[in-house]
Design a protein that fits this description.
The protein has two domains: 129 residues, no CATH class; 236 residues, no CATH class. Helix content is 49%, strand content 18%. It is built from 16 helices and seven strands. Strands 5-4-3-6-7 form a five-stranded mixed beta sheet, with helices on both faces. It has a two-stranded antiparallel sheet with strand order 1-2. The longest helix has 27 residues.
Length: 385
């Protein structure tokens, strides 16, 4: 860790030094050795040392001076001794999916100085230990709900581009607040890896999950039952609709989806089953596979009918994780392929921090939801004093 800190400190100091020199070049109108283009009586007049604070500790930089005493750097203002915001700006640009080369161009446009893009990349590497620490942080012992999903990205490894699954877990605690429990990368999405993710949550302190909302991955339910045998599983209705319409002709999709609505919007399970029978009688001959999947997955699709409308609304879709995934895709879609797994993790982590910073509010109707959860799950809901 000390070696990492020293490296980042050295890189940051060197970059700041180059930027300061670039500012004075712009001020005077010519670079250090380019006297042919000098059009001002003013000139350089050495440096003054200044110790500033960064996220890696104190750094000593040499502030360039001009002979007339008119130059005041904007990067490190006269009485400013804290440069951590500069590092934050670089990390923010990186978190928006901007490549290290584009960050290099941005710095050149603003300060008129070239910074090696590999230096920018190595500065962003300082968050790798932070990511690992975040991935292993202790979690709460009980979550009312955990949503599990995955998206896919391309990563370049050993000269070849391969597709990798980004596993995501979002938990809602008993205070009604959401948090991203972790992000993991693996070769492809599978129930076996999901089991390792769930066991990882247990090792970080999670003792119980009341409800898990999942997509339709084969073996997913069994993986949850192994890790958390008392957890009730709700299959995401939106994923189920997408899966079943995969077999439906484009001209029939709108009517097919409209006929599904009375099923998942029914007030009771009996009402939903009656609507399912009507749906089957209309569509089963034409789209047998898509219709049959609703019967085959009914045990997980019907879990929501046990609960009050407030809880049902919270669990029958994975809207929260879909919205989160949308934010991740904004920054990953600009990449045809990430140069490495670490490069992908850095952007995913920084984007995640930007998103959860806005998750300050308790879920709507949470007191009512918590009361219903207490009735349904009894002693498993351990309320805080």
């Amino acid at each position: 860790m000390q070696g990492i800190h020293d490296l980042v400190k050295e890189l940051t100091g060197g970059m700041i030094q180059e930027l300061l020199e670039g500012e004075l070049d712009n001020e005077l109108g010519y670079s250090k050795w380019d006297y042919k283009n000098k059009r001002t009586p003013n000139s350089r007049n050495g440096h003054s040392e200044k110790t500033v604070k960064s996220r890696e500790g104190e750094i000593t930089v040499k502030i360039p001076r001009d002979r007339n005493g008119e130059f005041e750097p904007q990067l490190i203002e006269k009485y400013n001794t804290d440069i951590s915001s500069i590092e934050d700006k670089i990390l923010f640009l990186y978190s928006q999916g901007i490549s290290t080369r584009d960050i290099q161009k941005t710095i050149k446009e603003i300060y008129g100085v070239d910074i090696d893009d590999t230096k920018v990349s190595r500065i962003t590497d300082k968050i790798i230990p932070v990511i690992k620490e975040w991935q292993e942080r202790p979690l709460e012992n009980i979550y009312a709900m955990v949503m599990l999903d995955a998206l896919h990205i391309k990563v370049r490894e050993d000269g070849a581009v391969s597709k990798k699954a980004v596993y995501i877990a979002i938990g809602t605690n008993l205070d009604g607040r959401k948090d991203v429990l972790g992000i993991w990368l693996d070769a492809s999405e599978g129930a076996k890896y999901w089991l390792s993710v769930l066991n990882g949550l247990k090792s970080r302190g999670v003792e119980d999950i009341l409800i898990a909302s999942i997509d339709g991955l084969k073996g997913f339910v069994e993986a949850i039952q192994v890790a958390f045998p008392r957890t009730e599983v709700q299959r995401c209705v939106v994923h189920q609709i997408r899966s079943s319409t995969r077999y439906v002709s484009y001209k029939d999709v709108k009517a097919f989806v409209a006929d599904l609505k009375p099923i998942y919007k029914a007030p009771t399970e009996n009402g939903a089953l009656a609507a399912l029978e009507i749906f089957e009688s209309k569509w089963s001959k034409k789209y047998a596979i898509g219709v049959r999947s609703w019967r085959e997955n009914w045990n997980e699709l019907s879990t929501m009918f046990k609960y009050s409308p407030e809880i049902r609304k919270m669990i029958y879709t994975t809207n929260a994780i879909e919205n989160f995934n949308r934010q991740l895709r904004k920054v990953t879609k600009t990449k045809s392929a990430f140069v490495s797994t670490d490069a992908a993790l850095k952007i995913l982590y920084l984007t995640t921090m930007n998103v959860i910073e806005k998750w300050t509010m308790q879920l709507r109707d949470w007191p009512t939801i918590l009361e219903n959860l207490s009735i349904h799950f009894g002693d498993r809901v351990k309320l805080k004093n």
